[in-house]
Structure formats: structure tokens, C-alpha cells
Amino acid sequence: MRTRIHRSRIEPTIALINVVFLMLVFFMVAGTLSQPLDKDLRLVRTSDLEGRAPPDTIVVHPDGRLTYRGKAIASPQAFYAARPEDEREVVRIVPDEALSAITLVNLARDFRTLGASRVVIVTRRGLE
């Protein structure tokens, strides 16, 4: 007489749990919101940088105009003075691609002179 070999069937629930978990992570990442930037702004391209969504940033246009959340800013001093004390340590700048480097460096120097311990320039990751 032959003995029957009982094979246990592998349940597909582990694969289903993995797929559901990956979908959960995807929607958590995709659902992250950030403040909208100006529509006519083209970001500077860089590569190999750590990426994250820009929080409260000041936008610098090619002509040197400053905007914050779509509203015009008179000067770096006015922007810095209007910020709460706990947000003055780090200033984030989003420059337009056509902005001159000298203007950008001078703006960063102004914020450092006003008391910012760190000035972060936000760019987009290069596609090369």
C-alpha cells in the first residue's frame, strides 16, 4: 500500500498583506502636502542632493523680486522681522533658474547678517 503524502497548501495571504502594506506606504508618501510655489518659477537643477518638500520658503524671481506664499516682500529685513523667533534660525530660499548667482549670494549673506544661522537654497534634482 502506498502512503499518501499530504502537502500543505501555502496561503496567499502573506503576499496580499505585503501588497496592502506597500499601498499604504505609497499613499502616505503621495498624500504629503506642501505650500504651492509660484507658477512662473523655474527651479535651479542640481543632482545627488537629499530631497524633501520645501516648507516655508522665500521665492526669489529673476528680477530679484521676493515673494512669500505668493505675496510680495519688500526686503530681506522685512521678511526676517516678520518671522516668529523660533523660525528665524533657518531661512529657505527658492531661487529662479535665471537669477544671477551674485544676487543669490548677497541675499544669503543678508540673511546671515540678520541672524539666521543657516540659509538653505532649495533646488530640484537634476534629471541627468
Describe the 3D structure:
It contains three helices and seven strands. The protein is α/β, with parallel strands linked by helices and 128 residues long. It has a five-stranded mixed beta sheet, covered by helices on one side. Strands 1-7 form a two-stranded parallel ribbon. β5, α3 and β6 (118-121) form a beta-alpha-beta unit. The longest helix has 18 residues, at 13-30.
Topology:
Layout: H1 13-30, E1 45-46, E2 58-60, E3 66-68, E4 71-73, H2 76-82, E5 90-95, H3 101-114, E6 118-121, E7 124-125
Parallel strand pairs: 1-7, 2-5, 5-6
Antiparallel strand pairs: 2-3, 3-4
Overview in brief:
This protein has 128 residues and is an alpha/beta fold. The protein has helices spanning 13-30, 76-82, 101-114, and strands spanning 45-46, 58-60, 66-68, 71-73, 90-95, 118-121, 124-125. The strands form two sheets. It has a five-stranded mixed sheet with strand order 4-3-2-5-6, covered by helices on one side. It has a two-stranded parallel sheet with strand order 1-7.
Number of separate strands: 7
CA distance, first residue to last residue: 69 Å
Helix content: 25-40%
N to C succession of SSEs: HEEEEHEHEE
Number of helices: 3
Work out the strand percent: 15-25%
Specify Rg, calculated over alpha carbons. 24 Å
Mean pLDDT score, rounded?
A: 79
Silhouette: elongated
Structural class: alpha/beta
Unreliable residue stretches: none
List keywords for this structure.
3 helices; five-stranded mixed β-sheet; two-stranded parallel ribbon; 7 strands; alpha/beta; elongated; 128 residues
